[in-house]
Amino acid sequence: MTVAAYTPPGVGMLAVGIVTEVFGPHGETLPGFDFALCTDRPGPVPTDLGVPLTITHGLDRLALADLVIALPCAGFRTPPAPAVLDALSAAHERGSLVAAHCVGAFALAAAGLLDGRRATTHWRFAELLARRHPNVIVEPDALYIDEGRIITGAGAAAGFDLCLHLLRREYGAAMANAVARDVVLPSHRDGGQAQYLAAPVPEDCRDERLAEVLAWARENLHEPLPVAELARRAVMSKRSFARRFTAATGTTPHAWLRSLRLSSAEELLETTDLPVEEIAHRVGYGSAAVLREQFVRRRGVPPRSYRRSFTNTP
Question: Rounded to an integer, what distance in angstroms lies between the CA atom of residue 258 and that of residue 287?
Answer without folding.
Answer: 15
